[in-house]
């Protein structure tokens, strides 16, 4: 936790916040501050700043909060990802939030197991894992996650509008061009499931204007491919 | 499993291999081949090729093996990593093997918990996780993993020799230069623990000739930083 993220509901006055939950226990056990110490805080979807410790007890911490610093810039990216299995989804949500992805579409594909769509990670824990990712990065801007359970209508009806005016890339290791050089331009990136998109799906995406790219001959797991792709597509 | 990795001990003659373990069960359940099918195989520390299915029963598979293809080239990298916590170590071993790391040093640091050194992952499961990583990548060349439980003697006595003639880089997000552009040159990369190296350790590494580099203002978890760093340091 490199940043303590604050909800509006944590505030008892315009500049005083009280924490009692996971964040409090982390602060108390790991950071162990005393009254008068300053902690790095941020307001969700707001600015970064400091929390002056007014009081810390066995049950809660009270902070005087001042936030004036702009969070790190988001990636100009819409990431479209075949829904991963739940355990991997947790880490991928964290990674996406940490690396600055702000628009994430989780879509269906032939090789996505149907059971993944009813996983508790997807139905109840998305925000929790995004928060962990933002806390890691020192960012406040909550990513938006969109679920699309039908591949064909999504690709035919919605994707052309999403990708309009952006560099439209499909990461797929076969019959692909090398990943383009880092550039901070609007990008729509599609990443398939473990085992890859089936040829029908690749065709549909190509027909929608997506260029197939690879990042080398080694086949990466999805959770490894995402940081590798983002690190290569966007400059520091 | 994008590749079936074969040990010498799997062979009952110069070109016939029999599998009964995890690999057999995976082949049987996932790939479901019949006699006459060809599977992608590789010999550990040897070449890639095909395994012609001679027979598949409820207990084993018998393959006629021909291997003539060179595996993907390794990264010209020595990766030196503060020992991660066991759960993360599993994934990191897989990621390193998948991405082509062949020399991995796991070292101690102030922020490495002592208990990590007695984890079963470290004492008994290293090869298992490296195999999973190679199977994912379609590579045969087993990485070498070296354990160094004392930071100071390692950095003072061994590291200068390891880094000699290579680009010596320390990934550390503070007081750092941007990561250099991708280039296929010999590199020694040091990555710290969660929470980072302490100033004394950074000083020791800088004194040993290591340049501090970063990959942006966002602080990444170690398991995310590794693919991001490797993808940025080396061309496709």
Describe this structure in words.
2 copies of one chain form a homodimer. Chain A contains 7 helices and 12 strands. Chain A is an alpha/beta fold and 236 residues long. Chain A has 2 domains: 4-69, Ribosomal Protein L25, Chain P, CATH 2.40.240.20; 77-233, Alpha/beta knot. In chain A, the strands form 2 sheets. Chain A has a 7-stranded parallel beta sheet with strand order 8-7-6-11-9-12-10, with helices on both faces. Chain A has a 5-stranded mixed beta sheet with strand order 1-3-4-5-2. In chain A, helix 2 runs parallel beside helix 4 and helix 2 (86-99) runs parallel beside helix 7 (222-233). Chain A is elongated and about 60 Å long. The model of chain A has no long low-confidence stretch (mean pLDDT 96). The A-B interface holds A 2, 72, 91, 94-95, 98-100, 136-139, 178-179, 214-221, 223-225, 227-232, 236 and B 2, 72, 91, 94-95, 98-100, 136-139, 178-179, 214-221, 223-225, 227-232, 236.
């Amino acid at each position: 936790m490199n940043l303590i993220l604050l909800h509006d509901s944590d505030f008892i006055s315009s500049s005083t916040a009280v924490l009692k939950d996971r964040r409090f226990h982390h602060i108390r056990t790991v950071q162990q501050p005393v009254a008068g110490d300053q902690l790095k805080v941020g307001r969700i979807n707001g600015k970064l700043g400091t929390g002056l410790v007014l009081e810390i007890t066995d049950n809660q911490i009270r902070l005087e909060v001042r936030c004036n610093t702009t969070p790190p810039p988001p990636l100009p990216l819409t990431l479209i990802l075949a829904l991963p299995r739940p355990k991997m989804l947790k880490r991928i949500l964290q990674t996406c939030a940490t690396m600055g992805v702000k628009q994430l579409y989780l879509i269906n594909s032939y090789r996505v197991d149907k059971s993944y769509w009813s996983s508790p990670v997807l139905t109840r824990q998305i925000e929790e894992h995004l928060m962990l990712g933002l806390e890691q990065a020192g960012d406040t801007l909550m990513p938006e996650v969109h679920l699309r359970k039908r591949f064909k209508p999504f690709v035919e009806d919605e994707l052309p509008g999403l990708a309009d005016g952006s560099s439209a890339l499909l990461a797929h290791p076969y019959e692909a061009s090398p990943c383009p050089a880092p550039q901070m331009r609007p990008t729509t990136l599609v990443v398939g499931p473990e085992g890859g998109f089936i040829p029908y799906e690749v065709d549909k995406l190509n027909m929608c204007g997506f260029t197939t790219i690879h990042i080398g001959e080694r086949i990466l797991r999805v959770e490894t491919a995402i940081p590798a792709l983002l690190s290569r597509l966007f400059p520091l």
